[in-house]
Write the structure tokens for this entry.
Amino acid sequence: MVHTAPAGTLETAGQPPAGRSARKRQAIVEAATALFLEHGYQGTSMDEIAALAAVSKQTVYKNFADKQQLFSDIVLGAAARADAFIATLPGAVADAGDLAAGLRALARQYLAIVMQPRLLQMRRLIVAEAGRFPDLARAYYRRVPEHVMAGLATQFGDLASRGQLRIADPAVAAGQFAFLVLGLPLDRAMFLGLDHDLSATDLDRHADEAARAFLAAYGPR
């Protein structure tokens, strides 16, 4: 496949040096991400990254000590997405008209985020390279899936304390909610890739049923 440089990665005449440096670094990250996702870690070279980013190989090494550091920075950068999702949790249920509607909204949002094509590709890449970089895979798990579970547990614990849910162990309930919402669609996407054939309508329907099952188990009598 022929690659073109990511948009917005070339220097602009008269741009301040600090601005050019930041743009070059971003161009390197974007290029490396695209190549890692398409070819994997072993199938990507620093020469290819430099060429796609439209920078010199020396510039790549000036920003990143080696390919492993660049790969690690890209993988752990995904933690920001988890933080953004967790920040929405307190309002996801509270802003809805009722508990059932709130849980459906939360399930839909959760599933839609996880099933984004770029995030699915990143997850498959991390799993594929877990044997080569076990510490990195463990760090990603702590900062993303485990962090989201903790956020869900906090949210469900708060709902239980207000009598809206009957939950003895919020952490267990969070894990069950996550599996109900993500289990089947994520398995399908991990094995079939972007050809999983699940439309946005399919995902919303699945999320709604997952929320209904969760409420049936934990809702007030």
Remarks:
- Residues 149 and 178 are 8 Å apart (CA to CA).
- Residues 1-15 have pLDDT under 50 and may be disordered.
